[in-house]
Amino acid sequence: MTWYETIFDERYPELFGPLEHDPEDEVARIVGLLSLPAGASIVDLGCGRGRHAIPLSRRGYRVTGVDISEKMLRMARERAARENVSVEWVREDMREFLRPETFDACLSLFTSFGYFADEENEKVLRNVARNLKKGGTLLLDLRNAQKGLAGEEDHEMTFAVPAGRLRLRVRFDRVAGRAYAEHELTRPDGIRILSRFDVRIYSEDQLSEMIGRAGMRIHAVHGSLDGGPFTPGAERMVVIARKG
Q: What residues does each domain of the chain span?
């Protein structure tokens, strides 16, 4: 099995939660960036446990959350039920999810794009373009790891988190254009939880070409969800594209 078929389970909040930001704040920024009309239909591709899908639904949007992990979707369903929020949850591989001309916007957040080989990543973008209505918008929220491919050294850091101590290690394969990461959590009782994953890293030009081939055009590139400028040192690369 590949990493994306096993990593998204009950361990995820402990291993990745400390890296996440306030989803309510992020949703407010997303809504502002995209100028979404009231009641717009949105698909959250790789929705996980519904961190963004649920706040979006609470704001009155019609939200579909798509994820390959039944365990993550179960957490999402349980939270939505507790909070009396209506979201359509769909268990499906993003490479196969198709609902032509259904959505006003597609969101791919927290580096949920780039899991696969180039051909499959392009297939995801083609599906997105088909699923969007004319004039619909794609938002890709990616970590700006291009500086790693440009020569920045691989790095490692350890810090305290609520569940113990979390060590993060990242290695860049500059030939393959991928970043390989390892998260290791050591709990106070000595139990260790390890997770490994890798993602394809694309330059702005590469993404522009891929998105163009899929039938969309980049409208803007930001360095954060608040619309800040995209610079070599930016933490994120937020790409906004539209279907013509």
A: 3-144+202-243, 147-198
Residue with tokens 């999402």: 76
3-state secondary structure of 56: helix
User: What fold is seen in the domain 3-144+202-243?
Assistant: Rossmann fold (3.40.50)
Tell me how far apart the alpha carbons of residues 47 and 50 are, in angstroms, rounded to a whole number: 5
Helix runs in the chain, H state only: 12-16, 23-34, 53-58, 70-82, 118-131, 146-149, 204-214
- Within the chain, strands assigned E span 41-45, 62-67, 88-91, 103-108, 132-143, 155-161, 164-173, 178-186, 192-200, 216-222, 236-243
Question: 166: which strand partners?
Answer: 159, 185
Q: Compute the chain's Rg from CA coordinates.
A: 18
Identify any residues that bridge with 240 across adjacent strands, giving them in sequence order: 139, 220
Reported as a single tens digit per residue, the pLDDT across 154-200 is 789 998 988 899 999 988 888 888 989 999 999 999 899 899 999 99
The predicted model scores a pTM of: 0.92
Partners of 140 in the β-ladder? 108, 239
146 φ/ψ angles, rounded to the nearest 5 degrees: -60, -30
Q: Which residues contact 206 (CB under 8 A, 6 or more apart)?
A: none
Beta bridge partners of 220: 240
